[in-house]
Design brief:
homodimer; mainly alpha; DNA-binding
Chain lengths: ~190, ~190
Amino acid sequence: MDTVKRTKILQAAIKVFARDGFFNAKVEEIARQAGVATGTTYLYFTNKDDILISIFEEEMVPIIDNMKNNLLRKKTAREKLEAFITGHLTMVREKPDMAQLLELELRQSSKFIHGYNGTKYKEYLNIISEAFIFGQSNGEFKKEIHPTIFKQILFGALDQISMNWTLSKSRKIDLEDSADQIIKVILDGIAA
Amino acid sequence: MDTVKRTKILQAAIKVFARDGFFNAKVEEIARQAGVATGTTYLYFTNKDDILISIFEEEMVPIIDNMKNNLLRKKTAREKLEAFITGHLTMVREKPDMAQLLELELRQSSKFIHGYNGTKYKEYLNIISEAFIFGQSNGEFKKEIHPTIFKQILFGALDQISMNWTLSKSRKIDLEDSADQIIKVILDGIAA
DNA sequence: TTTAGTATTTGAATGTCACTCATAATTTTT
DNA sequence: AAAAATTATGAGTGACATTCAAATACTAAA
């Protein structure tokens, strides 16, 4: 297994998927950009879906790492959640191509939606629930909220905001502002 | 334009999409189930994506109607939002085939993700922001939260929970319980 | 009721890929 | 340096989505 060639193909795929979208991207074009023959792609990946999922799994590693390190530095659970929210949105703003891949293209993969039991996806979500459990144990957060449900609520909210921003051509929405608003709603609620 | 035939094709498509998924569904099979020739499908819809989007646009009409009526009966904004949350999750539980179509299959359509400026999707989200604005104007909710962001936060949270439930084979998660939790978090926040 | 015109329907044919596999090139082992 | 093993190639295959020339079903004027 030539990992150099494998990486070349993945890098080419990131470019082509970001430019053409997952569906319109041709495997032949990915291979061409990677400087290999079409068939070679299938020696390193079982199919087109597998290329996309591999990109996800590998790109998530530094993102998860970075996020975990950031939260480690925060003392309170509230600060940890705030850091997660701003960190996620900063990533979306600073790496729009990758964000588009992870938020939009990935979900067009049938294999990802169904069947896929992504460890990296779960790991990312679990950063939220761990911070939340910490907050419950030290008395910062309500005990009656289930961490597994909470992580979905927060991730769902973040994801929706991110996707909207990524899709909007103008991108006039201020993500910093959105982060503040999410923090307010989720942490303190909307009741006056 | 024969609306009877159009409806027959749409009904057949709902069945086939729900059974096989959007991707694996064959236009030929939809046509067969509708009792028409393959080509006829293309007299009523421009392509396979258009069939799916048409299902969405048309199935959303009674859902939106029903939701609006339910909220109309509620007096406070808090009650309206609670009704939206439970209503959405009830729909997911009671019409799982339709939920799967709207939550999962629809997002595999490239044309839907990009390009699509769904009026019905916007209309559904706007039910949330209208209730929220009402709550702000009568002093129930904080003034500093932007309704447009709030609707995305709530819908994103709901959608994530719904998708998870739809995807989980066991479906052991109690959606009633999830509704309560979402209400608690979004309405009152998580701070102890 | 024919007939000519118009609208609708048909399904075989076309084009576009994802994916395969017999062959070739390269590397490793002897 | 020859044989064996590994890796790479790209023309070929099959599976659809979509098209379109021909057939069929209407409509209405004579």
